[in-house]
Specification:
This protein has three helices and no strands. By secondary structure, it is mainly alpha-helical. It has one domain. Helix 2 runs antiparallel to helix 3 (42-64). It starts with a helix and ends with a helix.
Length: 65
């Protein structure tokens, strides 16, 4: 719930760091969802790998900032 409520508070122009953090939290939630699956198909494995790459790329932006 916090993620949806905070979306209105942090916009990219006024709060770039907070906005980037929200993007990271969302990417982590997506990654966590795929990691919690007990049974995987080729499609879910591919989607999980994509989610991992998105999360990694977003974290690198924060790390390099």
């Amino acid at each position: 719930m916090f993620l949806y409520a905070a979306h209105d508070l942090f916009n990219e122009q006024q709060h770039p760091t907070g906005y980037q953090l929200l993007k990271c939290i969302r990417a982590f939630r997506d990654l966590d969802m795929f990691a919690s699956f007990e049974i995987h198909t080729e499609d879910t494995l591919l989607a999980g790998q994509t989610a991992l790459k998105v999360f990694h790329d977003l974290m690198m932006v924060i790390t390099l900032s």
